[in-house]
Amino acid sequence: MLNMAIKAARAAGAIINRAALDVESVRVSTKQVNDFVTEVDQNSEKAIIETLLTAYPDHGILAEESGNEYGNPHSNHIWIIDPLDGTTNFIHGFPVYCVSIALAVNGRIEQAVVYDPTRNDLFTATRGRGAFLNERRIRVSKRTQLRDTLITTGFPFRPGDNFKQYMAMLGDVMQRTSGVRRPGAAALDLAYVAAGFSDGFFETGLSIWDVAAGSLLVTEAGGLVGNFTGEADFLEQREVLAGTPRIYGQLVPILAKYSKFASAGDKAAVRQALNEEAPEEAADNAAEQDADKAE
């Protein structure tokens, strides 16, 4: 099954690479503000589904663009597919995007493939058998101090996202680490934690196809993954935190108060802190406007 997922991912990657040669001609449509889908997403997804259902016609499919339209939705084997994670990067020619394929058996992720077609990097994992990059065993990094870490994240981009709270959360993390990056493809971010290229990752608003494959890569590489409060049942909770065991343990106390599952007291404290900052921002903005007028 892993080999078939690899075959499907490489077929999708070939479609993506061909389109990347002339990205200006790719047709783009908007699902919602700042959330794009291209004909490449759709063609990539079609290639993956055809490959998997030809091999396993009784399996189910849960895909970003077509949902559970194809396959057997009642199967205990469900393929979870993101045909092009990082679409916004792709349509700008920014070479950070990937294909993500996971297999859930009775609700548990058992196989995972994340394929970066720009670098021909193939991340794979099978439950209980470890994680690999191009057939070489990978492990999470050995860093144990948060101040030494490189952390990745994803910025909120949809209308209605709580930008102010996210900036507060980002500020809390940034001042405790050696750096924070925002590459723009969550599945690849998780793969990079598994490979030890970064030491942790956090983001809100993600769907199951963004995190299913990457989460198995992290755990099979010796890391931990869950929601912001450290609970392991996170796949459909739209918040994810991953990292080396020691770093994960240090990030949970920082991020837990921003979780949708935080206690009422923590949520109230965050709201109060954000409200207290608002008058200061207004004063700063007014001062800037006065300075502009003076000029």
Automatic annotation (TrEMBL):
| Catalyzed reactions | a myo-inositol phosphate + H2O = myo-inositol + phosphate
Q: Which terms are listed as keywords in the entry?
A: Hydrolase, Magnesium, Metal-binding
Q: Where does Mg(2+) bind?
A: 64, 82, 84-85, 210
Q: Which GO terms describe its biological process?
A: inositol metabolic process; phosphatidylinositol phosphate biosynthetic process; signal transduction
Does this UniProt record's set of keywords contain Magnesium?
yes
The keyword Manganese is annotated on this UniProt entry: no
Q: Which SUPFAM superfamilies match?
A: Carbohydrate phosphatase (SSF56655)
EC number of the protein: 3.1.3.25
Which principal EC class is assigned to this enzyme?
Answer: hydrolase
One Pfam family linked to the record: Inositol_P
For activity, the cofactor(s) needed are:
Mg(2+)
Q: Which domain of life is it from?
A: Bacteria
CDD domains in UniProt: IMPase (cd01639)
* InterPro entries, sorted: IMPase, Inositol_monoP_metal-BS, Inositol_monophosphatase-like, Inositol_monophosphatase_CS, Inositol_monophosphatase_SuhB
Example of a GO MF term? inositol monophosphate 1-phosphatase activity
- Where are the residues of the annotated region Disordered? 272-295
* Regions of compositional bias (Acidic residues) in chain numbering: 277-289
Which family is this sequence assigned to? Belongs to the inositol monophosphatase superfamily.
UniProt name for this protein: Inositol-1-monophosphatase
Organism, scientific name: Comamonas piscis
